[in-house]
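Sanity check

After download, print the first record. It should look like this:
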Amino acid sequence: MNTIVVGGGAAGMMAAIIAARNNNKVTLLEKNEKLGKKVYITGKGRCNLTNACDDETFFESVITNPKFLYSAYYGFNSYASMEFFKSIGLNIKTERGNRVFPLSDHSSDVISVLNKELIRLGVKICLNTKVKKILINDNNECVGVLSTIGTLNADKVILATGGKSYPLCGADGDTWKFADELNINTNEAEPSLVPLVTKEDFVKELQGLSLKNVSVNLTDWGKKLYSGFGEMLFTHFGVSGPLILTASTHVREKDYSKNLKLVIDLKPAMSEKELDERILRDFKENSNKQFINSLSGLLPSKLIPVIVKLSKIDARKQVNIITKEERLRLVSLLKGLELTVTGNRGFNEAIITRGGICVKEINPSTMESKKYKGLFFAGEMIDVDALTGGFNLQIAWSTGFLSGQNE
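Expected structure tokens:
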């Protein structure tokens, strides 16, 4: 069988390998100058290639349409992915949160072993090749593609054209263009797993400050959208880090025009009463110090001037004359530092894209289009997305495997 795979990212490379292993004659078309351009930057260049979790945890980590992935994931789960990569020569390790990385900490090694396997299997790799059109005959069968290297005929075409995140890696919305031309329903693309922009100016003073073991609540007009615990980072525009990226998956683009609040509990291990007692002890030990010089045991140095300003307590006031009302105001601030979320950093900084080909358009047992025989889908172009931790790449491996396996 003659198979064309469009897109040389994670899902496309997996689909091409599996199709070739099933004795297909495979051509892999990639618009960039090299394969796996987005894989290269994942996990801050380390490539968190999957998550060594149980099946239940995987599906709990999928935000959009988890049930659609049952066949794909059970057919090629995270343990199958780990065995696959080990079998083609990649040494791997498992870190905190069951995140799986290459032992070398280099994403280039992941791309390298996939590339070697493609070559070993005789897959024809065409780089710098853009697909202009998907060719469909009068019987609604996909029969090939029109590309910058000409018309290529095929018995089967697998589309793995990705989302819109990281456009510098070539994500330019081909998925939606092809879907429009083929009259295939899509859901609008939105950035997800993306840093958030906040209104408050004081975040600029906190730029680069990383906070561990904090909890956040994200609310929309008081309605809780997300609650979580972990690590976050202040930036010149707002907030980022694992906790914030996860929170962003619970916000839709339309929500940013509303009263969206991010409330940070800087001391989640203590109740307000316990925190008040802790501050009282600190004040007693530093009774002759000014307020601004009494907080070093409680807060990172970068955060102190901001908290002092927000508390409305005179920075030069001696702690032994701070009133109970002022102290309780400080406690309330540390347990509920509030930021107003006004937007996100868009596709340029979004790890993944929410939206894509509607799952109702796809047979979940095969990844084949319900409208067009011989047309298959894989990876981020499908309307499924998950949390950070290797889950989104696992979706790419699972859907790529399934689309490559089926005739």
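If your output differs, re-run the checksum step. Summary of this record's structure: DSSP finds twelve helices and 21 strands in the chain.
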